[in-house]
Design goal:
The structure holds two protein chains of two kinds. By secondary structure, chain A is mainly β. Chain A contains no helices and eleven strands. In chain A, strand 5 and strand 6 form a beta hairpin. Chain B has no helices and twelve strands. In chain B, a hairpin with a 2-residue loop joins strand 7 and strand 8. Classes of the chains: A mainly beta, B mainly beta. The interface between A and B is medium-sized, with 27 and 27 residues.
């Protein structure tokens, strides 16, 4: 089945220790997104890639970076995690042909704990 | 400005009851899309429906139905004969052509279905 895969499902890191979350997709979608979701809140868009074009949301902290080496993979790098970065990180993809109105398909998420 | 309001924070019902989740949206665009997603305790956001602004027909899929009314800017979701497996957080979301690739999510409604 075509899908969005996130690894690991659970990640524990120490305060200030860099961490990388990964996302892969078999849908061959052009757009990949990273969302941060804190407890009992809606997902918050951090950034997205349309193909190789990177688009950062204005309020995304500099501590968060992303890489998309190819169509299938996208990485979220948190350079110096703080306690406030503990959250669920959701990766999503969309076809990209209809812009923002395409349906987004989500992975299972990575729950990040910062000690 | 785009906005999605889900006024119900939590709803609790007994199995087999019908339940309606409310969603009110704001947009200046005449072309937009509305979505509902389900987020079970596992964390993955599961796509349920996508509806464009030119299609006001109500939709039924099994026990799920959606009532789209442009006159009141609402896109409500009804679950008929609720089951314990319906327990989840449900998000209503909006995309239009002014937001780039950004989808605006409501705050979510947590549904508890008790046996």
């Amino acid at each position: 089945d075509a899908m969005v895969i996130q690894n690991p499902r659970y990640q524990v890191t120490q305060f200030g220790k860099p961490v990388t979350l990964s996302c892969s997709q078999t849908l061959n979608h052009n757009v990949m997104y990273w969302y941060q979701q804190k407890s009992s809140q809606a997902p918050k868009l951090l950034f997205h890639y349309y193909d190789k074009d990177f688009n950062n949301e204005a309020d995304t902290p500099d501590n968060f970076q992303s890489r998309r080496p190819n169509t299938s993979f996208c990485f979220l790098d948190i350079r110096s995690p703080g306690l406030g970065d503990a959250a669920m990180y959701l990766c999503a993809t969309s076809l990209g042909t209809s812009g923002s109105t395409d349906t987004q398909y989500f992975g299972p998420g990575t729950r990040l704990t910062v000690l | 400005a785009q906005k999605v309001t889900q006024a119900q924070t939590e709803i609790s019902v007994v199995e087999k009851e019908d339940v309606t989740l409310d969603c009110v949206y704001e947009t200046r665009d005449t072309t937009y899309y509305l979505f509902w997603y389900k987020q079970p305790p596992s964390g993955e956001l599961v796509f349920l429906i996508r509806r464009n602004s030119f299609d006001e027909q109500n939709e039924i899929s099994g026990r799920y139905s959606w009532n789209f009314q442009k006159s009141t800017s609402s896109f409500n979701f009804t679950i008929t004969a609720s089951q314990v497996v319906d327990s989840a957080v449900y998000f209503c979301a909006l995309s239009d052509n002014t937001g780039g690739f950004k989808t605006i999510f409501g705050a979510g409604t947590r549904l508890f279905v008790k046996a």
